[in-house]
Design a protein that fits this description.
The chain is an alpha+beta fold. The protein is built from 26 helices and 23 strands. It starts with 7 loop residues before the first helix and ends with a helix.
Length: about 850
């Protein structure tokens, strides 16, 4: 039997390209003509004819579809703009709140990406490792990021898996002389020529293949070269560095400023060959501790664990017998900044990043975006019931459900697009503040950062479709007859869910406020804590020139007698949160055991009085008493750690030398309060002390300091007057906490601002919906106070509920964060109550304007509303 039906796929095409109104007639006409051709010319001719008609109709269908779609989109666009203009206040609240959330999320995403992208710019970064040491000391394993100078070349020569090695010697707070000007740079490197190739350092001036070959040559960063020489050519110019002695370097290159996402960032690089001229003996000396950061580039496919074994064997073949328990391991370049292996590392290249901080900032940024999105959805759904009649009329005029859905989606996308445009503007405005809070300049730009614009487009679509889908689906599903006959159907017009979402917004805000208050409390506690000595008006003067270290007493005497200072003491190195010397101390009864790890320092007899330290037992060092060269002072913690009933007069050992304990000092903080007070052993210094601790008078300290500078310049010609206040040295340890507090304050401001926008908008809508009710209540005798209470009580309840839920969460977060401090502020009730009061106050102020305006409106106007 011959099939007289049209081709199925061609019939489907005809059915799809026909409009809904003429579809039946066109399909039936095509079927009749197909049957006619089928009878007269046969099945093949009939199928060919049907296919030709179907295909011939496709272009016109496409043109009509595109044209119709454009026309409809244009119509949706006009309707969206008209509706936004009609409800300007709600639109503005929506746009501002979402813009703040989107800008905050973009900024924090940039920070997180920056932190996770450390060292990704280097070629072969997956094959570059740093060698670290494990040094047993006092029953503990100390991790050390530096090794001895000959370690790198010896390993490269003897271990075939190592392709290349690079050594770095860091120097901090380096005095720099340019002609008659003096600067102080925070950091510089001595490194080898191979550094430029291994870490892909681009040179703007000079030869990359020879810039660091010659002794006393150096490369400056682009910004530093401009700072020193302005627009002049820096090549060939002379730079004086004071590093144990004053050395003149010739500028042989200018490099592009290194990006902020590398621990190798430095503005100044001097040639490693210089060290062979100035510290020849140290360059050949093997020791377990060392001073040189050393990187290896392994061959492709090399096993790092196998190399680690060979490195330890190599070191043992050169180290003395008492250092044979040291071992060495490789740390990937990418994990130095952010990896867990970088924790508790001594002599690290730079401050380490924090995964905890990344999690905190990521979580807060996400919460701000969620709060902003909730605010946006709340205000969008709040207007649903007011547009039901509009939907009914449109349906009566022939609009189908898909048209209504598209219209509401278009309005939502218009609002989110406007919000994103404002968000990008806020992003540019907030970026400098973020850099200030972080203490680093992030390489973020709207056009220069490739991921920003795609992220923006994705956020617009995600938030716009999410916010627009619920009201669009809800409003479009009711028939026009239902809307006009029964009024507002039950659904999102009920405000309970919106108030729950407002409560969630304030829950987030209260948690952030509490955490911020406790961070500020801990920072204040850290800065105000009694350190066990008087650090006011106390400075440390560095005595850098190695050729003149044998006259410390004479310099002290000159400054003391001619400048009007209160007191002065010499010390080998003043202990602070940034630096400390560590020694292993043993008692006579435990000479063969591991002993204890103690901080050590060398001071003169004036140190205790200058700092205001308290002597508990025994005596201080005495001037002119040569026997005190073999005497020590210890602190209370050291006395307990040594486990001796009466430490005075007993003998302790450092290496092979013995010392007698002559005094016990009351504990004082030499480190930040992150760590407990360490055992401290104080030795008597000699004439080679490298720093002076000077107490200035409380009045006229600046004049006295100027006099000290003049005396210093006179007795130490050519020596830089390099000093720092002890207060500043102490406070540097809490930079991270202060920056975190600054970030949290900014987050709190933004979160509370967005939450207030949301509650303000909902209060405006709620009072608008209850205008007639308010008029009737006033006619029946309600007072303004009663109306204010009536209109505000629901918001107050949800804010109080948010506080109840937020307190235990905030307590857990704060308690966990404070565990990083050995000494910490108490978790008291005050910040919790203050956060509740702040949240309640801003919530009430947000609704007060709208509720007061409605309560004061004349009942006549209220009853005539609509």
């Amino acid at each position: 039997m011959t099939n007289d039906r049209p081709p199925r796929f061609a019939a489907w095409i005809v059915h799809r390209i026909s409009g809904p109104e003429e579809r039946i007639s066109i399909v039936e006409d095509y079927d009749e003509m197909y049957q006619e051709v089928f009878r007269t010319r046969g099945p093949n001719a009939a199928r060919s004819w049907y296919w030709s008609q179907a295909l011939r109709s496709v272009p016109m269908f496409l043109v009509r579809s595109v044209w119709g779609s454009c026309a409809m989109l244009n119509n949706y666009f006009k309707l969206g703009l008209r509706n936004i203009r009609k409800h300007k206040r709600f639109a503005l609240l929506n746009i501002i709140g979402l813009a703040v959330g989107l800008a905050s999320c973009l900024l924090m995403a940039g920070y997180v990406i920056h932190e996770l992208s450390f060292e990704t710019m280097h070629p072969f970064n997956d094959r570059i490792y740093r060698v670290n040491g494990r040094i047993p000391m006092g029953g503990r394993i100390l991790h050390n990021a530096v090794v001895s100078a000959p370690f790198g070349p010896a390993a490269e020569e003897s271990i075939p898996e190592i392709e290349a090695s690079v050594r770095i010697l860091r120097r901090h707070y380096v005095p720099v002389g340019i002609e008659d000007q003096v600067f102080k740079e925070q950091k510089m490197f001595f490194t080898e020529q191979a550094f430029l190739e291994a870490f892909n350092v681009p040179l703007l001036r000079g030869s990359r293949s020879t810039a660091l070959e010659a002794p006393f040559s150096m490369i400056l960063g682009e910004s530093l070269a401009r700072k020193y020489f302005g627009d002049q050519d820096p090549l060939g110019r002379t730079v004086r560095l004071t590093l144990g002695q004053t050395i003149e370097f010739q500028v042989t290159g200018v490099m592009r400023d290194m990006p902020s996402n590398t621990v190798l960032r430095t503005p100044m690089i001097a040639s490693f060959a210089t060290l062979y001229q100035t510290h020849r003996e140290a360059m050949t000396h093997w020791e377990s501790w060392g001073s040189f950061t050393t990187f290896f580039r392994l061959t492709a496919g090399a096993d790092p664990s196998s190399v680690e074994t060979k490195l330890t064997e190599l070191a043992h073949s050169h180290l003395p017998e008492d250092a044979q328990d040291a071992s060495y391991y490789l740390q990937p370049l990418g994990s130095i900044y952010i990896g867990r292996a970088g924790r508790n590392m001594n002599n690290d290249l730079d401050n380490s990043g924090s995964l905890t901080r990344i999690y905190i900032i990521s979580g807060i940024a996400l919460l701000i975006l969620v709060v902003a999105a909730i605010n946006f959805i709340n205000l969008s759904t709040a207007k649903i019931s007011g547009r039901l009649k509009e939907v009914g009329i449109r349906k009566t005029c022939g609009a189908v459900r898909s048209h209504l859905i598209n219209q509401f989606m278009m309005e939502s996308l218009l609002l989110t697009s406007a919000a994103m445009g404002m968000g990008l503007l806020l992003f540019s405005l907030f970026k400098p503040r973020l850099d200030l809070c972080l203490g680093k300049s992030l390489s973020l730009g709207i056009l220069s950062t490739p991921w920003i614009l795609p992220t923006v487009a994705g956020m617009v679509l995600a938030v716009g479709l999410l916010a627009g889908s619920y009201p669009a689906m809800f409003l479009s599903r009711f028939p026009a007859a239902v809307v006009f006959r029964f009024g507002n159907p039950r659904g999102p017009s009920k405000s309970g869910m919106r108030r729950v979402l407002v409560g969630f917004q304030f829950f987030v805000a209260v948690v952030l406020i509490i955490c911020t208050l406790f961070v500020l409390k801990q920072v204040k506690y850290s800065e105000a804590k009694n350190l066990g000595y008087d650090h006011d008006n106390l400075i440390v003067l560095s005595y850098r020139d190695a050729n003149r270290l044998r006259n410390a007493d004479a310099v002290k005497s000159q400054i003391q007698g001619r400048s009007g200072i209160v007191s002065i003491a010499s010390v080998d190195r003043f202990p602070s949160a940034q630096n400390r010397s560590i020694s292993t101390i043993r008692t006579a009864a435990a000479r063969d055991e591991e002993g204890i790890i103690a901080q050590s320092m060398e001071v003169d007899e004036d140190f205790m009085a200058t700092l205001g330290l308290q002597l508990i037992e025994g005596r201080n060092f005495e001037p002119g008493r040569t026997a005190d060269r073999q005497s020590v002072l210890i602190n209370e913690t050291a006395a307990r750690a040594l486990e001796m009933e009466n430490p005075l007069g007993t003998t302790i050992f450092r290496a092979d030398k013995s010392f007698q304990i002559v005094g016990i000092l009351k504990d004082w903080h030499t480190n930040s309060i992150h760590a407990p007070i360490y055992p401290m052993v104080i030795f008597r210094s000699d004439e080679t002390a490298a720093e002076f601790v000077i107490r200035l008078p409380s009045e006229g300290s600046q004049e006295v300091l100027a006099t000290v500078r003049e005396v210093w310049s006179e007795i130490m010609p050519g020596q830089i007057f390099d000093y720092a206040y002890v207060d500043d040295l102490h406070l540097r340890a809490y930079d991270s906490e202060r920056r975190l507090a600054s970030l949290l304050i900014s987050f709190c401001e933004l979160t509370v601002f967005v939450a207030c926008l949301g509650i303000f908008g909902l209060a405006a809508y709620s009072t608008e919906q209850r205008t007639k009710e308010i008029g009737i209540r006033k006619v029946l005798g309600s007072s303004v106070a009663a109306l204010l209470f009536l209109l505000s009580q629901s918001y107050v309840r949800w804010v109080l509920a948010a506080n109840i839920l937020a307190w235990p969460i905030a307590y857990g977060l704060v308690n966990r964060w404070l565990q990083a401090f050995a000494y910490r502020a108490a978790i008291s009730l005050g910040p919790f109550l203050l956060a509740a009061l702040l949240a309640l106050t801003v919530a009430l102020f947000s609704v007060l304007y709208q509720t007061l305006k409605a309560a004061l409106t004349s009942p006549v106007r209220s009853l005539r509303y609509e």
